[in-house]
Amino acid sequence: MFWRSSPRTPGTPNIAAPTSQTPTARSKGDKAELRATPPDPDPASPRADAQAIKATFEASRDCYFLRNNAFAAKSIINACLTLPQTPETEGRRAACANSIEMNRARTDKLSEAAEACPKETATAKFFYEATKAAAAQGDTDAQACYVQSLYQSEGVDLTYSQQDIDDYLRDAPNYIAHGLSRGDWRIVALLARGGHGDQYNPLELVTKNDIYTQYVMNRLLQLGADSTYANQLNGLIQAIYLAPRLMQGPPLTQEQIARGNKDALALFHRSFDHQALLQDTPVVCRGGAL
To answer: Per the domain annotation, does 58 fall within a domain?
Structure first.
């Protein structure tokens, strides 16, 4: 189980805190003077390289979401405009009238903002590569995006090479373990829903859609949630994991449920109980919002 494994340190170093905020001592006569170490001026230094990789990831992430959100808004408008004029679609066409105006204004804003982005930086392939590089440097936002691994360019899913899959199988479990160790709710949210039910997402290759892991993660979310969100999660848990299924019993045994509750509570106290209560499902990979 991910929460019982120790994260592998080699290959996933944490990004160090900026040294401009780290006091150091130097000799000045018989006194030691505390001063801030200036940023490394060498653009070829490892730290400068890590900062450039992080900046590329963040810029690509924002542009990627701007362009794809603009595309989604345009798609809603087009779907509404192409509805057939039949009695069966009358209700949908009425709802679309308001949706068109709302999405047209949103599309204009998103498209205008996206125009400032070089087109290649907003593609799924570029964002994937930028995310992968930043994740390897220890950037936790990039690691969350990489574990999720949902990349599209205008509705077309990114096609992964075998090397991409091999790299994911090597690195994603470690990013997951690191996330659980540091109390990252985004990783919990990903594991709570397993894979995404399609062939384009490699997360299922790691989680195997293990229903016990999903149960533990949903219980963990519930422990960290406020009353409204906790009640929503409880309803979901009851319906998916505890209620009998057609022609068979519940997917988990009573022993598994009891053990899962203990695992969730132990992980909550180990890494999550110091945080503010969740009000909704955490957004795993966010950028380019307007």
So the answer is: no
217 in a structural domain: yes
CA distance 63 to 60: 5
For 237, residues 6+ apart whose C-beta sits below 8 A from its C-beta are: 215, 218, 219, 222
Q: Mean pLDDT throughout 263-279?
A: 97
pLDDT at position 44 is: 56
Residue 115 lies in a domain: no
Those residues whose C-beta lies under 8 Å from the C-beta of residue 21, and which sit 6 or more positions away, are: 36
Q: Are 290 and 109 in contact (CB under 8 A)?
A: yes
Closest C-alpha among 219, 152, 155 to residue 192: 219
* pLDDT band with cut points at 50, 70 and 90 for residue 75: confident
- Domain of residue 215 covers 191-283
Domain assignment of residue 215, yes or no: yes
Neighbours of 264 (CB within 10 A): 23
Q: Count Cα neighbours of 161 within 13 Å in the Cβ-side half-sphere.
A: 6
Q: Looking at 10-14, 140-144, 173-177, 186-190, which range is the least confident one?
A: 10-14
For position 288, what pLDDT does the model report? Answer: 63
Q: How far is CA 262 from CA 223, 266, 278, in A?
A: 12, 6, 20
CA nearest neighbour of 213 among 190, 239, 234, 192: 192
Query: Considering the entire predicted model, what is its pTM?
Result: 0.79
Instruction: Answer left, alpha or beta for residue 208, where phi above 0 means left and psi between -120 and 50 means alpha.
Output: left
Q: Specify the amino acid at residue 204.
A: E
Q: Are 20 and 39 in contact (CB under 8 A)?
A: yes
Strand partners, 157: 152
Percent of the chain residues past pLDDT 90, beyond the cut: 52
Domain count, the chain: 1
